Amino acid sequence: MDHDRYNPVPFDVEAIRKRWMKDPVFAEAFVALEDEYVALEELLRARQRAGMTQADVAERMGVAQSSVGRLESTAGSRKHAPSLTTLRKYAAAVGCELRITLTPIAKPKREPTAA
Fold first, then answer.
1. What digits encode the pLDDT tens for the residues 41-83?
2. CB 71 within 8 A of CB 82
3. Would 33 be classed as within a structural domain?
4. CATH number for the domain including 31?
5. What is the CA 5 to chain-centroid distance, rounded?
6. Domain membership flag for residue 37
7. Could you tell me the pTM of the whole model?
């Protein structure tokens, strides 16, 4: 048996999210942490696209597999805030580059004032 072969378990994040979003308590909590969840999904999708295991990523980063597991499991929470250096190393390990985008917050349109 080849234990080194990447063989992911099918997992449809979108389907699960849609089902859970029907729960108002979950939906409110998700919206409050949406940025963190988006970051977590980016990490997982990048590793999946690269066809890599956590152990593969860890080897390229020069860290223990448990460090990659911790990064991936806590990136969607506020318990752990990885440094930019760590995120850059992860990105490079999965064949990506790290980009950060600041997007202006849409301001509500103001009613015209009478002159």
1. 899 999 999 999 999 999 999 999 999 999 988 765 666 788 8
2. yes
3. yes
4. 1.10.260.40
5. 23
6. yes
7. 0.68
Residue 100 placed within a domain? no
Distance of alpha carbon 19 from its chain centroid, rounded? Answer: 19
Name the residue range of residue 53's domain: 13-93
Residue 1 clears pLDDT 60, i.e. is over it: no
pLDDT surpassing 80 at residue 3: no
Helical axes 84-93 vs 34-50, angle rounded to 10°: 30
The SS3 assignment for 23 reads coil
Residues in the chain: 115
* Alpha-carbon span 51 to 46, nearest angstrom: 9
Contact (Cβ atoms closer than 8 angstroms) between residue 34 and residue 82: no
* List of E strands, the chain: none
Residues 6 or more apart whose Cβ sits within 8 Å of residue 44: 13, 72
